[in-house]
Design goal:
Shape: globular
Distance between the termini: 24 Å
Number of helices: 10
Largest sheet: 7 strands, mixed
Oligomer: single chain
Strand content: 15-25%
Structural class: alpha/beta
Length: about 325
């Protein structure tokens, strides 16, 4: 079942890319910028996010630069050499301290393929499952990235480099950069089995990776399904942080902690709608038709994400065994 769900999700991603005739975002054209969030703390994201984010337009991978007395930590290493070099150039503009650590918030190539270009002295912080995936399924993941991002964007050159400091399921680690502590934790399944959140407790800054894609109107992508677990994890994260936290999503500019409420409210909404329809004995098509989503339709990828990924995940989690798992999109 898990393999079938994953393959189905990957097919949807590739289908979207083919239908669009171009990548969701083009790694050969993206320019990265940094934004200061606190002394020595910077978000890194795609130039033009101030225009794209409010319109729900998909953007390139975001990350971070955290500077301590001893050295620097990167949050994400990006997809290819071009973007990795942009990120390290931003570091050079800010400090001459060495890059001591780099965190991968998941195994996804746009967050972690830049590991290949890191200095040997840099220690990579990765989930233990992410390391296992890099070491056993890298070619599969690279081919997936080629399908999504397109050829000729530097993905072909990547070779796997996996983690040195590993975080086990539900585990965490605190890294002392010198005068600044960084807390990195697995709160549970959110989009993958190796999601990591990066938290600065003093500065109240949180990097979420892909579990929070971007500010509203963007929606969560349940690529591997598991609505109930993803919802529970986001609730844990929201309860863990302070309300005045700055959140850096996986693919957008920094925003407020309200972004977590937006994602949680949406997932609760589709959970409630599907559960209610099932209790009434409705078929899947009727439930999809009756699910009111007007407040969430500002996202540029709404139809694909909502009907192609998230509603099917809700039905898989909430339907009794044996119920037809046809996607809501097909039954519109």
């Amino acid at each position: 079942m898990k393999i079938r769900i994953l393959l189905s999700s990957l097919f949807l991603i590739l289908s979207f890319s083919v239908q669009a005739q171009k990548p969701v975002w083009d790694a050969n054209k993206v320019d990265l910028v940094s934004q200061k969030l606190a002394d020595g703390v910077y978000a890194v994201y795609e130039k033009g996010a101030d225009i794209k984010a409010p319109k729900g337009i998909p953007m390139a991978t975001s990350g971070g630069i955290i500077i301590g007395d001893k050295g620097v930590m990167l949050v994400e290493t990006m997809l290819n050499k071009r973007l990795y070099k942009q990120m390290t150039a931003l570091v050079t503009e800010l400090t001459d301290k060495p890059i001591l650590y780099a965190v991968n918030t998941s195994h996804h190539g746009d967050h972690a393929f830049g590991n290949y270009y890191l200095p040997e002295s840099t220690q990579i912080i990765q989930h233990s499952r992410g390391k296992a995936r890099f070491e056993t399924r890298f070619e599969e993941d690279r081919n997936l990235m080629l399908g999504i991002m397109g050829k000729g964007r530097g993905v072909e050159a990547i070779k796997p480099r996996s983690g040195d400091i590993l975080i086990k399921p539900e585990g965490s680690v605190t890294i002392d950069l010198g005068g600044r502590e960084v807390f990195i934790k697995d709160f549970g399944f959110a989009q993958t089995g190796d999601d990591l959140f990066v938290w600065l407790p003093e500065e109240k800054v949180l990097w979420t990776g892909n579990p929070v894609v971007a500010e509203a109107p963007a929606l969560p992508w349940l690529l591997q399904g598991r609505l109930l677990e993803s919802l529970e994890t986001l609730e844990k994260v929201r309860d863990f942080i302070d309300s005045d936290t700055t959140v850096v999503p996986g693919h957008s500019r920094p925003t407020t902690s309200a972004v977590l409420d937006w994602n949680i409210d949406y997932l609760r909404h589709i959970k409630s709608a599907v559960a209610s329809g099932l209790d009434k004995g409705w078929n899947q098509g009727k439930i999809v038709a009756a699910t009111q989503t007007e407040q969430y339709q500002g996202y540029a990828l709404f139809k694909w994400v909502h009907f192609g990924l998230n509603l099917p995940a809700a039905f898989r989690d909430l339907s009794p065994a044996g119920v037809n798992q046809t996607s809501g999109k097909a039954e519109q």
